[in-house]
Amino acid sequence: MIIPAIETWAPRELSDAAKLNRRVTEVHRFLQNPPAARMTGLARSNMAGGSFSVLPFYPVGTEGGGTSYQTWPGMVPVSKADKTMGRDTSWQFVVPVDGRYRITLNGAWNTNAEMPDNRHALWVGIGVDPSAGTGDAVAAAAVDAFSPAQSTPHTLCGGHTTVQQLTAGTKVQFAANCLSASVFGWARDDITVQYKWGSFAEIRWVGTL
Question: What whole-number distance in Å separates Cα of residue 139 and Cα of residue 114?
Fold first, then answer.
């Protein structure tokens, strides 16, 4: 799949079916269904504080709620085998065509340390083309980062959106690091199912320069 070419009309130019299809129908069909994908967070409970850990996601269609999708094939993993912890690279978005992309990450994180009077130090990064599928590599490739709001003495919830110019084949991946707890988790549906459904990543083509 490619982005339809934008052609200009010449003064008094006569139209025909082929021109209308190429210049109007194909362009609007693309704009109606641009490259986009969404993955739901897969619970990870044993991330070590003080180091970067990759955030995992369910392959599309396997989360059980119908909230994940991809509009173009090949943007996200679809195999159930990709749910193993040894397949970090399977949790990447893959950009299908050049353009500006809106990337959103939202989530719920829990820690093993309560901080009723102070704020947890949690860093979450959005990495572009990491050199490997590891937390350190994703952190080194981060183009944007955020710290989610603390919702209870031991949990944090929130998200962030960034817009980036990306080329076809670029991979986008996410990692987190908590400096205020020895162990932290992500998307823990064993605590509450809301943590699962509130943890997701989404990418969408929004235009070109």
Answer: 26
Strands (E), 29-169: 36-40, 44-48, 53-54, 69-70, 93-94, 99-111, 122-128, 142-146, 149-152, 155-166
36 and 71 Cβ atoms separated by less than 8 Å: yes
Domain boundaries, the chain: 17-207
Q: Is the alpha carbon torsion for 117, 121, 126, 132 positive or negative? A: negative
Cβ atoms of residues 51 and 66 within 8 Å: no
Burial class of residue 121 in the structure, from the number of CB atoms within 10 Å of its CB (0-12 exposed, 13-18 middle, 19+ buried): middle
Q: For the chain (length 209 residues), average pLDDT per consecutive 10?
A: 75 80 71 87 91 90 87 80 50 91 96 77 94 90 94 90 95 93 93 94 90
Does the domain at 17-207 match CATH 2.60.120.40? Answer given as: yes
Q: Is 204 exposed, middle or buried (0-12, 13-18, 19+ CB in 10 A)?
A: middle
Residues 6+ positions from 44 with CB-CB distance below 8 Å: 53, 55, 56, 85, 185, 186, 187
CB atoms closer than 10 angstroms to residue 77: 23
Q: Which tokens sit at 171?
A: 């991979």
